From TrEMBL:
Organism of origin: Drosophila busckii (Fruit fly)
BP-aspect Gene Ontology terms: defense response to bacterium; killing of cells of another organism
Known EC number: 3.2.1.17
Protein name as annotated: lysozyme
Reactions mediated catalytically: Hydrolysis of (1->4)-beta-linkages between N-acetylmuramic acid and N-acetyl-D-glucosamine residues in a peptidoglycan and between N-acetyl-D-glucosamine residues in chitodextrins
Record keywords: Antimicrobial, Bacteriolytic enzyme, Disulfide bond, Glycosidase, Hydrolase
PANTHER family in the cross-refs: DESTABILASE-RELATED, LYSOZYME
Top enzyme class: hydrolase
Amino acid sequence: GYVLDKPVTELCLTCICEAISGCNATAICTNPIKGACGIFRITWAYWVDAGKLTINNEKPDSQRAFINCANDPHCAADTVQNYMKKFNQDCNEDGEMDCLDYARIHKLGAYGCGLDKDMPYSYQSTFDECIENYEDQGFV
């Protein structure tokens, strides 16, 4: 279940993480019913769509498989990679599939990432600021 061909760069993952949660690893969830878990704020449905990745050879159908993966930064990042690989699309219609599209897909979902949908201001501004900081440092 781990991704070999990873469409999302480490830098892009970092900025999505910053935008969605401030990469706050202490704000974990212990109950999938509460919604979004881990540094990428992954929902149960997102995890299922991404292939139900697990850690430590845990069975995907075990009671804590989702929570354990979503709260583990590596498993969560691989879950994002799988989701983007599955739902890769040009959300902003600029002719390429890139980090801007992945940020929209992550926040708005695979079928709601088009330009007719607005990104939440705090998410978009934090994401843009993160990307700009890396550009200023010559990483992009």
